[in-house]
Design a protein that fits this description.
With 397 residues, this protein is of the alpha+beta class. Helices cover 33% and strands 23% of the residues. Strands 3, 4, 5, 6, 7 and 8 form a six-stranded mixed beta sheet that branches. Helix 1 packs across helix 2. The longest helix has 29 residues. It is globular, with a radius of gyration of 25 Å. The protein binds cytidine-5'-monophosphate. Cytidine-5'-monophosphate binds next to strand 4 and helix 8. The site of cytidine-5'-monophosphate has 11 residues, from strand 4 and helix 8.
Length: 397
């Protein structure tokens, strides 16, 4: 009798493992895409004890505190076909527990101001596009930390809670219920107060990176929804699209647009004077009765049909920006009249002016002449870029 009990006891772990394997195979058969992130149990929120796992694009809440560790083991041994493995293509160095992500700048291909809202903001309608110029952000989990740590190569950049990266990580914890803290190293190239969305891009990149390091509990659509919070700025949600989007509201209502028919190899020159412009100041200087009257939906259709080969270039914030800084108006005139670019427009609320095409006389002469006549922080030659797919991040070119 005692021998029979010992025998049953001895075969119990094998039975549990077999059962676990059967459950796992059954679960895998139910979905086409299922992966439990490594360190799954560590990611369970201590507050809720629950964790959301992305299964085949649907969020299922896994209260799988999984009585048997064997199930976790069996599941983790299954082939991974989740979005996680795809997203890794946008990142470098995940194996060492840290990832390096490109954090691109944006330009506004058009920007219409629609109305002033009771909350003091303005409703706008704008076509945003990412470019291949940007920052780089390295992010890792800090296993025993109780706060995030941010380092930046530029001494003037705040690394406390006023930085959108820190706010984005906090927002990620709130939305996901995952109590993990992160270390971030930010290498900045995108200038501040430039109208290129640098801070918002960094916030969106940190948001994406945190999600990736936690096993991608949020789908790309979830991330866009989670990022829609004024604490991380009006433009952050845009960067969670694939890089081309029609943005309305404060800018946070993002309608993703498929790639525009833009000429292959079209150059984009970003010209940033040696001063920035405060978005708030530019909006304050705006005369609502002097705005363009062109329908933004018509503008959108023009860009969808013709890419950038047309003459419908509008940014309602140019006039107020030129009121704040008359020098910027002179810079735009110089760029627009002397070099034969296809288009020249201020981005966002300035102070960057972008030029499309190549300058007659060549880029060296163009740079030298512009820098001789104006006080310039930088001129960068770049191109339009997009994410390769909704699950892959922007890749540095
Ligand atoms: O979005 P962000 O915090 O960068 O905006 C800075 C300021 O610009 C806001 O406080 C507001 O005065 C103005 N703004 C606006 N309408 C928008 C975006 C910004 O009036 N859509």
């Amino acid at each position: 009798m005692a021998r029979r009990q010992r025998c049953i006891a001895a075969s119990l772990p094998a039975l549990v493992s077999l059962l676990a394997l059967l459950v796992a195979v059954w679960a895998n058969a139910l979905t086409t895409s299922f992966a439990i992130p490594t360190g799954f149990l560590r990611h369970v929120s201590p507050t809720s004890g629950r964790m959301a796992t992305n299964v085949g694009g649907t969020m299922i809440s896994s209260s799988l505190t999984l009585a048997s560790g064997g199930v976790v083991l069996a599941l983790s041994l299954l082939p991974r076909r989740s979005s996680t493995s795809q997203t890794l293509r946008g990142a470098k160095g995940e194996a060492e527990g840290k990832i390096k992500l490109f954090s691109p700048a944006k330009v506004n291909l058009f920007l219409r101001i629609i109305r002033r809202r009771p909350d003091g903001y303005h409703d706008l309608a704008s076509l945003f596009h990412t470019v291949a110029f940007g920052d780089s952000l390295e992010i890792k989990v800090l296993p025993d930390a109780e706060k995030d740590a941010l380092e930046c190569n530029l001494p003037g950049v705040p690394v406390d809670e006023s930085n959108l990266v820190i706010r984005a990580l906090k927002l990620f914890r709130e939305k996901s219920g995952i109590e993990r803290f992160f270390g971030v190293k930010l290498e900045k190239q995108i200038p501040a107060q430039a109208g290129m969305g640098g801070g918002s891009s960094n916030a969106a990149t940190a948001f994406f990176g945190a999600n990736l390091l936690c096993g991608s509990p949020a789908s790309p659509e979830d991330l866009i929804r989670w990022g829609d919070d004024p604490v991380i700025g009006s433009d952050a949600t845009f960067f969670l699209s694939e890089g081309t989007a029609y943005c309305t509201g404060r800018g946070e209502i993002v309608t993703p647009i498929e790639g525009l028919p833009i000429k292959e190899g079209l150059s984009v020159y970003l010209v940033k004077p040696n001063y920035g412009l405060s978005t708030g100041k530019v909006f304050k200087a705006m005369d609502l009765s002097a705005l363009s009257t062109v329908d933004p939906e018509e503008l959108l259709q023009t860009f969808k049909d013709k890419g950038t080969s047309h003459s419908s270039w509008v940014n309602d914030l140019e006039k107020p920006a030129f009121t704040v800084s008359p020098d910027l108006s002179e810079l735009k005139d110089f760029l627009a009249t002397e070099w034969g670019f296809e288009a020249v427009l201020m981005s966002g609320s300035g102070s960057t002016i972008f030029c499309l095409g190549d300058p007659s006389g060549g880029s060296q002469d163009f740079e030298a002449a512009t820098k001789e006549k104006f006080d310039i922080e930088g001129i960068w030659k770049t191109s339009f870029m997009r994410r390769p797919s909704p699950t892959e991040w922007y890749q540095e070119v």
